[in-house]
Amino acid sequence: MCISEDGSQTERFGIGEEFESKDSWMTGRMKGVVASGRAIEVGGNAEVPETKATPKKQATRKKTPKG
C-alpha cells in the first residue's frame, strides 16, 4: 500500500492474491471490483455452481416365476 503526501492510499492486487475487507466502505469497493469482472469472490460467501449430476435411475425387469 502506498500513502502519498496528501494522505491518499493506493493498493495493487496481484494475480492469485486474496483480500479481506475489514471496513464497510472497503466491502462496497470490492463488490464493485467483482461486479465489473476484474476479480472473483471466493470463500464462504461465494455462490457455488451445482456441478454434481443427478444419478439416473436404472430400469429393472420384473422377475417372472419359473414354471
Give an account of the 3D structure.
The protein is 18% helix and 6% strand. By secondary structure, it is mainly α. It has a two-stranded antiparallel sheet with strand order 1-2. Strand 1 and strand 2 form a beta hairpin. The model has no long low-confidence stretch (mean pLDDT 79).
Can you give keywords for this protein?
67 residues, mainly alpha, 18% helix
Quick rundown:
By secondary structure, the chain is mainly α. Helix content is 18%, strand content 6%.
Model regions low in confidence, pLDDT < 50 over at least 5 residues? none
What number is the mean pLDDT?
79
Distance between the termini: 86 Å
Order of helices and strands: EEH
- The Rg value, from CA coordinates, equals 26 Å
Strand content: 5-15%
Number of helices: 1
By DSSP, the count of extended strands is 2
> Structural class of the helices, strands and pairings?
mainly alpha
Q: Fraction of residues in helices?
A: 10-25%
Largest sheet composition: 2 strands, antiparallel
**Any idea what the shape is?**
rod-shaped
Task: Give the neighbour order of strands across the main sheet.
Answer: 1-2
Layout of strands and helices, then pairs:
Layout: E1 2-3, E2 9-10, H1 24-35
Antiparallel strand pairs: 1-2
